[in-house]
Specification:
The chain is mainly beta. It contains 2 helices and 8 strands, in the order βαβββββαββ. It has one domain. β7 and β8 form a beta hairpin. The longest helix has 9 residues. Pfam families: DUF1203.
Length: about 170
C-alpha cells in the first residue's frame, strides 16, 4: 500500500496573492463575500464561512505552461489562513461533495491517460493509493466533478532516507 498525503496550495502561492500579486492570467484577484458553502479555500482546505471575504482568481497548479497545464478559478480566504496540515486524512473541503475527479500526472506534469475517474469521496484515498503505486504517476489531482476546479494534490509519502552506520573504511 502506498502511503499518501493531501497537499494544499503552496503557501508561497497564497502569500503572493495576499500581497497583491497577480493570478495565472496576470490579473488581480477579485474580492467576493462568501454566501456560505461552495467556497472552499485551497490553502487551509476548509470552506470559507458565510460573510467572510474571499479572493477568486485563475490558478494553474503546474510549474510551467504546456498543453496539459489546466488553469481554472479557485478561492482563497482574503485574510491569511494557515496551510492545511493534517495531510494524512481527507481534508474538510473534500467532504462537501459526494464525488470528485481524481486523476494522475507524470513527472512531466502531463495527464497519464486512463487515470481520470469520477470517484466517490470516501474512495478517494484508496484510488489515489492505487494510482500512486504505478511508477509512471508522480502525483494526483483532486478536482471538482461538476466544474473541474482544482481542489488539492495528493502525493506519495517519501520513505525516510536510510541512515548507514558503521566505521568508514
Amino acid at each position: 500500500m502506498t502511503a499518501i498525503r493531501f497537499a494544499a496550495m503552496p503557501t508561497t502561492d497564497a502569500r503572493a496573492l495576499w500581497s497583491g500579486g497577480r493570478d495565472a492570467y496576470d490579473r488581480l484577484p477579485e474580492t467576493m463575500v462568501s454566501d456560505g458553502p461552495g467556497h472552499p479555500c485551497r490553502h487551509c482546505l476548509r470552506n470559507i464561512d458565510e460573510g467572510e471575504e474571499l479572493l477568486v482568481f485563475a490558478y494553474r497548479p503546474f510549474p510551467e505552461l504546456q498543453p496539459y497545464a489546466e488553469t481554472g478559478p479557485i478561492f482563497l480566504h482574503k485574510q491569511p489562513c494557515p496551510r492545511y496540515a493534517a495531510e494524512e486524512i481527507l481534508p474538510p473541503v473534500l467532504t462537501t461533495s459526494r464525488d470528485f475527479i481524481v486523476r494522475g500526472y507524470g513527472e512531466n506534469n502531463r495527464i497519464v491517460y486512463g487515470t481520470g475517474a469520477v470517484t466517490d469521496t470516501p474512495d478517494i484515498p484508496a484510488y489515489a493509493q492505487t494510482l500512486l503505486a504505478r511508477p509512471e504517476i508522480a502525483y494526483v489531482h483532486v478536482r471538482s466533478a461538476r466544474n473541474n476546479c482544482f481542489q488539492c494534490r495528493i502525493d506519495k509519502v517519501k520513505a525516510p532516507a536510510l541512515v548507514e552506520t558503521g566505521a568508514l573504511a
